[in-house]
Amino acid sequence: MKLLKTLLIAAFAALSLSAQAQEAAIRKNLAERLPNLPAIEEVTKTPFPGVWEVRLAGNRLLYSDNSGNYIFQGALIDTRNRINLTEVRVEQLTAIDYKDLPLKDSFKLVKGKGTRQIAVFEDPNCSYCKRLHRELAKIDDVTVHVFLIPVLGDDSVDKTQRIWCARDKAKTYTSWMLNNQPPEAASCDTTAIERNSKLASEHGINGTPTLFFTNDKRVPGFIPAERIEAMLKEAKP
To answer: Does residue 76 sit in helix, strand or coil?
Structure first.
């Protein structure tokens, strides 16, 4: 019995050492052969025998053989369970809890009592964001935390800065989004906008609008008032 236990421990140790060696080989070979590749953050086994996940800076995923001799990019699908493993992994890597959102880098639009809450990442020139605000106008008793991220060019950067630096951010933003009244020139510390852009990049917020609900549900893209209302009810503790 003791001999069997010793053999099992030795076998597991050998497997662990082999895995470490394979990871080291992947890191070494990719770094040497592809010097322009972004920094490798993590190398982990996948359920696919002989295939390793290589996570690059910015949560980009590649897949490699045991030695880094071959790599490919794309979706890894579990056909038995019909699961897109790549999609699931990206969602895990980019997830963010609502309570962890840095609300100090946003401003509030309060409707009614404002007891219910959502957060939204938006570009002021995003047409779907403007449509979203027409839908939000139909909803009562909600506080909308707006995180500005200028992703649509220089004019978006300019408008974002003007809105953030306005004396009344909420009024200025609402006037622009609902009535096309351009924000007046203003200047202030805009490092919050830079932090928002970095946060968006780290958590895979690639498009606007992107909504977050207090139950940590995330919705990319425009949704109508009826669905917003339903998700607010679902998120209610």
So the answer is: coil
